[in-house]
Amino acid sequence: MDGSTAGRVDYQSLVFPYARSPDQDAPQPVRHPVVIVGAGPVGLAAAIDLAQQGIRTVLLDDDDRLSNGSRAICFAKRTLEIFDRLGCGERMVGQGVTWNTGKVFFREEPVYSFNLLPEAGHRRPAFINLQQYYVEGFLLERARALPLIDLRWKNRVAGLEPQADGVLLDIETPDGGYRLQADWLVAADGARSPIRRAMGLESRGQTFRDRFLIADVRMDAPFPAERWFWFDPPFHPNQSVLLHQQPDGVWRIDFQLGWDADPVAERQPERVIPRVQALLGPEARFELEWVSVYTFSCLRMERFRHGRVLFAGDSAHGVSPFGARGANSGVQDAENLAWKLGLVAAGRAPESLLDSYDAERVHAADENILNSTRSTDFITPKNEASRAFRDATLELARDCAFARRLVNSGRLSLPSTYRDSPLNTPDAEAFDGPMQPGAPAADAPVRVAGEPAWFLAQLEHGGFTGLWFGEGEAPPLPATGGLPLRLLQVVPAGGAPAGAAVIEDAEGMLARRYDARPGTFYLLRPDQHVAARWRRFEPALVQAALARATGQG
């Protein structure tokens, strides 16, 4: 299936046949470098990333289909940049609905609008809306093109035994059971994680006493491709409503129901259709595509690494759907884990590097949980005093900019900056701007060999990058001990290329975003986060920072 047919594939109807593996006939459990459990967006992203590094993976899933219903639909700019590196970002953006603007309404009146990406010079938009089954389908097709991924449908993990040098797995299939040995096990098996339960672990946090109805509605509608959020609208009084456009003429509508709502009754068409009709008007024609009622929690495991078992995505943490933090943070988990696990599995870094996965992604999960909890508290006031505060804030927000900062209809997903990561080399000199150690690298328009290009696309080789701003002959990189490190030279617009790996800062935007001047040097990690930066290049400092960024410093 290529990009030209992507819009015509019915991913909801696909059934993937079970196939017997040679491992099932082996006299002893076959050992694999990495076994991943769960072929959702997180597991697929991790498998693709590892395969691109040359690491074999076995990917197990207990089902034979993609996700049922649209589920996660909002994919953020940083996640799209990860998909670019995995080889399927263009398909995602081409199929998705692009949006940057959100609008907030109070009762029947608009309060204000906001632009999530007001500045130019970015390859990807703030968000696209795309049904999860498309995302999984595109990732699956990319995974199938990589021979280092062994994807096994209808393979359920029935038990496991953690060991000092790996994990022994009991697998159930339609043909009976067999055993596998994994050097490393990645649990991307969802919020109810059988791996987590089998290990006697749990996630802890807060469950919110409210229910929400998701209605995916197919219709022709005059609404623009924007995120619209209503507080206490006349068509759904005392509650909130969220409207999003998806591809294929489908719209996502979320209705707040209240804790006392019957989740079974509220899914019935005779309950759903009047709610949608009240929003759209009596003349609107539509059909229901998918309906669900949900409650949610903000929670996480205490640690994401347990010996040779690593948890990622919903198995490790959960948030409310407001702000699109679930799937985006899960894919970012996979990105953070995969480059580290790849180096460890290849013998290029010590196992202790994986402790930084736990440190960095627990920090990110706590950020998401904090923002998600604040959003939920604003959207669903718990008493009359908090409702009065919220409503007064919304009234003020029409005319007062300071009040708009207090309105919280779901602070939307942003990538985490790992400010306190043990992998960072602290700044020794003054820099301005956000590109501090631990920050995700910003994109910018550049020229490569005279042709327009994007900066982040030059970082897709999968290793570390040394970024040197200067003209003339670039400095030689130090010995890396086998670690992948590539040098990119950045010259000003019109600057003379001095080597093969030269990019031209076409609009000066790259230097501005990185607060760079001639001689500035950045060390970027494989996941495109900043590891270190200096005002001048010194080989010994780069060597030390590279060691630190791989758990050896």
Write a brief structural summary:
Helix content is 25%, strand content 28%. It is α+β, with helices and mostly antiparallel strands. The strands form 6 sheets. Strands 1, 2, 8, 9, 10, 11, 19 and 20 form an 8-stranded mixed sheet that branches. It has a 7-stranded mixed sheet with strand order 6-5-14-15-16-13-17, sandwiched between helices. The chain has a 5-stranded mixed sheet with strand order 26-25-24-27-28.
Structure description:
This protein is an alpha+beta fold and 553 residues long. The chain folds into three domains: 3-93 and 127-203 and 305-370, 3-Layer(bba) Sandwich (FAD/NAD(P)-binding domain), CATH 3.50.50; 212-295, 2-Layer Sandwich (Alpha-Beta Plaits), CATH 3.30.70; 445-549, Glutaredoxin. Helices cover 25% and strands 28% of the residues. The protein is built from twelve helices and 28 strands. The protein has helices spanning 41-52, 77-86, 89-95, 132-144, 194-198, 269-280, 326-345, 353-379, 384-397, 401-404, 509-513, 539-549, and strands at 30-37, 57-61, 74-76, 97-99, 101-106, 109-115, 127-129, 149-153, 156-163, 166-173, 176-187, 203-207, 212-218, 227-231, 240-245, 250-256, 287-294, 297-301, 305-306, 309-311, 317-318, 445-448, 451-454, 464-469, 485-492, 502-505, 521-524, 530-534. A hairpin with a 2-residue loop joins strand 10 (166-173) and strand 11 (176-187). It is globular, with a radius of gyration of 24 Å.
